[in-house]
Amino acid sequence: MKGIILTNPKKVCIPLPEWLQNNQVDLAFSPGDMEDAMRLAITLSRHNVDHETGGPFAALVVNLSKGIVISAGVNCVEAQSCSSAHAEIMALSLAQQALGTWNLRVTPHAPLTLISSCEPCAMCLGAIPWAGVSQVICGATKNDAEAAGFDEGERPSSWEHGLKERGIELVTGILRAEASAVLVDYAKAGQTIYNP
Question: What is the pTM of this model?
């Protein structure tokens, strides 16, 4: 098999940073309080920047009304050499593993909400409908991420309507100033803007 590189095992394993694995952040928020849940996501994004373990993005899958965190993810693109290791993908995948289903609508913990420190990029937007969340709550906007230098990809102008058509409620701009400040600080610190 000359010219073929097969050096890794035939599985994908993308670990979270040790600070998140070791519960160095209290994953708690007040039941029903979307701002408090967003505050937690922003805290995780800030920790990811401060620990230099990835990009300035974080996401949670939660039962918002009960105040239950099912999973937490942060951007691990650079740390894990994996372009798909965005915070939303990490959080959704971890929730699906934890609950033993690819469809988060069929778990006793449903309805579930994706809390993201930033609006989804093109890739994450594509993943959301297939995951089974009933609601998406975002902090910073696509424009905020792009102003910091990130390439968020092509997103249809009707993306909000597209989610609604699939029965997914969307709320954007929750604590936007706080969420976008993490993006600005990341860029100012000269950390990697990992566009191809």
Answer: 0.93
